[in-house]
Amino acid sequence: VQLVESGGGLVQAGGSLRLSCAASGFTFDDYAIGWFRQAPGKEREVVSCISLSDGDTYYAESVNGRFTISSDNAKNSVHLQMNSLKPEDTAVYYCAADPGGCGIDFSSWGQGTQVTVSS
Hints:
By secondary structure, the chain is an all-beta fold. It contains no helices and 11 strands. It has strands at residues 2-6, 9-12, 17-24, 32-38, 45-51, 57-59, 67-72, 77-82, 91-98, 108-109, 113-118. The strands form 2 sheets. Strands 2, 4, 5, 6, 9, 10 and 11 form a 7-stranded mixed sheet that branches. Strands 1-3-8-7 form a 4-stranded antiparallel sheet, with no helix packed on it. It is globular and about 40 Å long. The termini are far apart. The mean pLDDT is 95.
């Protein structure tokens, strides 16, 4: 299983970024893909998750209504559209694959992509 994130960067508050997670090495449709983030000095937290088999999605309360997770099963990729970004969204964002569904066993992780939101 290999996951590669891209799309991070520096953006002003109120701006948008689109993160992508390219997946390979497993049967894509059988998995769930989650996005997590970790800010300096803080614990890693789940941001969003999508079940690739049925499209069910989950969002953390802190991002609900601002972030949208989507999948392109033909291209084995998952995207996280982040709008109305806030300085507190600054973190390293990781995608992770879970063979059991969202929240069962995120056993494979990408290397992360930095998102920095300036005030």
